TrEMBL record:
Species for this entry: Alosa alosa
Signal peptide coordinates: none
A molecular-function term among this protein's GO annotations: intracellularly cyclic nucleotide-activated monoatomic cation channel activity
Alphabetical UniProt keywords: Ion channel, Ion transport, Ligand-gated ion channel, Membrane, Potassium, Transmembrane, Transmembrane helix, Transport
Membrane topology annotation: Multi-pass membrane protein
Location(s) in or outside the cell: Membrane
Protein name stated in the entry: Cyclic nucleotide-binding domain-containing protein
UniProt-listed Pfam families: cNMP_binding, Ion_trans, Ion_trans_2
Amino acid sequence: MITVYWATTTMTNVGYGDIVPSTMTEKMVAAMVGLIGLFIFNYIVSQIYATLSSKNAARVTFQNLLSSVTLFMEHQNLSLSLQKRVRDYMSLLWSSYQGEAYPGGPYLMHDLPTELQQIVLMKERGQLLSKIPFFEQAGPAFIRDIASVSVMYFFPRGEIIQYSDTITRELFCVHRGICQILTDDLSDIVALYGEGMCFGEVGFMFGKQAVVTVRAKTHCEILSIDFEKMKPVLERYPAMKRQIEMLQNKTDYYNQIVDAVEGMMRSKHRPIEEDVTQIRRKDAAFAYEGRRYAKKSKCYVEDFGNFPIYAGTEEETIEERLLKLSKTRMIPRKPRTYLEHMKEFFFRTFPSFILMRNAILPSNTTYIRWEFFRICVAIAISTFSLLLFSFLHKERWMWIILYNLEGFCWIDIYIRMHVAFYKDNCLQVETLETAKHYLKTSFLLDFISCFPWEIIGLMYFNINTIALWDTRPEILHIFAYLRVPHILQLYRVPLAFSFYQSEITTEKTAVTFLKFFLYTAMFLHFCTCIVFAIVCPPADLTGDPTIYLLPLGKHNCSRLSWVNHLDYSFDVVYENVTFTQLYAISLYYATTTLCGIGYGDIHPYLTSMRIAMIFIMVAGALYIGFLSGTVTSILANADAPRAAFTDKEDIIKLFLKSQKVTGQLYDSILSFYTFRWIRTKGVNQDVVFEYLPSSLLGDVSTIIYADVIAKAFGLKVKRKQRQELVTQHLSPLERKLSGKLGQPFFQEVLKKESVEQLETDAGFIRLLARQIRPCHYRAGDIICKRNEYGAEMYFIDKGEVDVLSIDESSVMITLKAGQHFGEGSLLFSEPRATTIRAGSNCDLFTLSKTSLDEAIIYYPKIYKEIKKAAERKQVELIQNSISSKKKKMGKDKEFSSDDTGYIKFYKDIMEEDHKKNYNKPTYRGCFLLDSFSNFWMHLLKFHNSTMDPVNPIRIIYQYTSCLFIVIFFWSITFMPITFNLSQNLFTMAMVIEYILLIEILFKFHVAYYDEEGTYISGYKSASRNYLFGKMGYFFDIVASFPSGLIVLSLIGTIHAETYFAFIVKIRLLHLPKILSALIFMREEEKSISTNLLVIRIIKYLVQGVLFVHITALICVLYAENTDRFRGDIEASYFVKKYMYGAYWTLATYTTTGFGDFRPRNFGEMLFTIFLMIIAKMHVIYNMGVLSSSQTNKQSLQVAFEEKLQAVTAYMIDTNIPSNLYNRVTHFYNYIWTRTKGIRSEVLFQDIPHCMKTDIFSRICIHLLKKQQLFAHLSETFLHHLVSKMYLISYTAETLKELGLLRLQQHRLACYSSPGKKAPEAVCEEAEEGQAPRRPGQASCQPNSPQPYHPFSWQMYDHWTTKWITYDC
């Protein structure tokens, strides 16, 4: 056992020093054991980290998505009820899929083989699908394929599944739960849909508007079948396709569905006048009517005329639930025999007499507060019970407190018998059922942990309880041990944390840190009580009860225990030692053991104590490892989005440098990604709402976009406006430059009857709003360029947009929030009239032509009208293009004085600018005046200049300033406390002080990014930001003010040394300056442009230096006040005492614990305990921070290496030849070196279209111009062409062997002949299956006339060794 004890102390790095190696062999063995223990426990920590990191990764990712959704909704000022609906749905989605899948995305088990997937889906959904009327005659194969394209949605209680008047090609089938059919205004419940029933047939079969509104009465699982996804399945089953088409062609079938719904509505016996009013209301325009509560349907509704939006429901009360149960409860059979009467009495009659009538809902606020109070009581009982059996068994007040607290435990048992619970997705509220459920689950554990087990001891000893405290304290000690089962009440604590953290909306990080703080405190308390209780067990009942080693506490400890040596180690007098001192010493012993320090002043002597310490040391090492792994995993998952974003930014930098894209375009791209990180934190907002079902997404989109849709499209829809829509009167030319039509969208192209139809159609607004997507542009970014062919329309939500002149030198018009532009390109595919640029950071909404067509296609008549208008406009554009070319033939016509279009418009502007410049005053004078004026202008220019935050000069001086601040803090605290009045040290501090004063001037000239991501570089704004910042000018000037000037008048009045000491102490007013360095490092840590690992290492080093320095100063102060700084060397000077304090702090901080310096009294012991805990927490947190940074930094490389390992393993298993194996691995290494394994089309998919066009124009437009096929095309078309191209990397050996890439049908390939210095490109056309031709065997254009087919074109750049591929 001694050997096991020594091995454990060595492997866990505790090392008390009671057993030490003496010979060289023993020392070598000890070193090997220590190294093995280091590797073992570090391996355990790494495994814990890897497990927890993978466990929490999905949750953190989903929480980041939920946070983005929440921020977006708050930014759009959505109602709290709508935000709650979204959060409730996302929480339900998390509980169902744990973030691994979502409806509409990849199937949860998508990595299974197809056959196995179909078997699983058929088992889950096959029976339900076979009951659908459309598929009753279908075979199992068809049902299996339909199950593969179906989607399962989850709806929380009260959520709307489908609105009437909305259009969706989905068929909904109730898989689990109950649904309610509501009236169109959501005010009444018409009918119920149960499991196996379907709705949505009208939209699914005919593409018409839905005829019923459906709401989830309970938690529902709805199976959805999209008709568009079902079309490929129907192509494989012609018989089913004919059957579906036959039903679609039957108008009687549609009428039957509509008549059935109308009959169901009439069954509610609504008055005829009310029906007429409802019909008239449908034909009226929308008008906001406020919020109302529908009593029958028990939900809140926000009305927009005939467009109601669900706004939440009231939770069903216990009384209402019991009333429903009383109507549906089965009448039990009357008892007949005597035994049945007894069972009826004990199991129904008597419990119903004891129990309350109503159950308690788990979501009840009062019950939640009671649970919180009960957990606090459980912690208190467990804490006091440990103190009772270890230290305070004879204290009456402790027993009284415990008995009072136990009263709450019995009350809690009675309350928990009434808590409702869910069974088969149904809330059980009958008290008899809740009591039975509690008795079957946790009643036994609660009873064991609440029952006063000392009653058994009283029955055994049969003595008077009053005399126990005076005559038999040893029996009281035994009674205290009988109360140990009360510690089991702590089981409620992890259950409470688990329940609280199960909600995805809960911020897990803060709760986790709180949980581990509580667990650490309880673990320390438990170990403190154990290390004392083991050596001081209950007294011998047959011995002399009057003789105690510790008389005050009535403890008779073992003769060889560590308690018997306290008088030597800590100057303890056994007759006077108190509970506080004993607990502090035990806590000190437990803390040194758990933290792995082990000074050696206390160590076990007894075998039983050594066994206990073995378990405590191992448990402590494992717990600290678990704590470190948890912290690391939390921080790694929290930093994962930033790491992914910075990895992508690094890859973009590598790509741009390899393609020699530099200068302003390079800086603009990097600035855009910085702006994107500030605004979105790396979350792609295009997929933010992909998780929501169509009904909920429709509500969110309608509330946000109804205003802009109504104004842009000319629909007289009125609702509660989110913002004041701007009306700006523009001239015809200004409207043309902005890409605007002469009048609102639909009024321009549709007939009056069609516009009125859309105005009264609530489904159209909801359908179109779902197609709009948000986007962000940085100030100065080009949104669209002149003559560019676009197909998007933009709505300005926030910011300003500048419409530029033709030469892009001036701003013609400024469009503000609430306006829109680009509808001409959306409707008619017009080229942009001019370049449009973001005047400030802009939040825009975009609507593409594809999305508009998807909405209009459900209105055939309107679709034909828009199509005809677009065809007319296209003819007009072609004619205008031809006429403009004819005009260019004669230069006189180009500058005709009769022109009233663009030329006259720009001539007027040029004349006005000329007049302004002509009337501008000029200065004439002597040469000296001109020179002074030029010097003054240059000086003002220099003064008004600002420095970029990423400028190397700014970075160097800021980090140097932080170093100076740390040195300054050390010097001004070291001198007054150690009384070291060194002149050199004082001079150094003075120099740093004045350097920091000069730094204030530089801070006025540092540019910055505001909260919206706008880069502010103007001197006035930058200086104002620093002047009025929270930690800006006023803080710096107060913290850096030369305080020595205050006592300057005392120079001649007092002694020089006294004055010097006085000025050293008054300089402590500069201490707040250290905050500016800490805040700077925190801000640098948030910045996306900094190296996160480096800044965190610097931050850790600074914190460590400050920690050691401050602790050493505290030691010096304590030595100064008590003159009891303990050690083998007695320090006679305060500087030496500072060095000893720093040495002891480092020994404790690094868990070395040599034992030459150790605490001796109560105050030193408490300070050491505090220091050990804080040091361990600081090390664990910072090691977690650094580990997470390094892990995330290498995550992309690890993923690529895992893929390469899988590829190599596959090639080995399939016996791939070695030469081919080497080529494949060489290719993977090559693409990792070039692009880190990410393709260019994926790399730039989230940047603005114009910026992407500029990048690829810089890379490959010169290659296009050298080809005869594209040489005659315009610059505008070539820019549009390069935006469709992407780069493919090939190694030289692959090109050498292949000569050409494999060509698909009608693929045109251009490549460079081997051995040529310049890219001598040759084109050829290859049919599918033909051998590729060699260079020079084909002309660059096909001669034989052939019909046009889509083809892919590839071109090889000899200089960059890249193949550029364009798919037409």
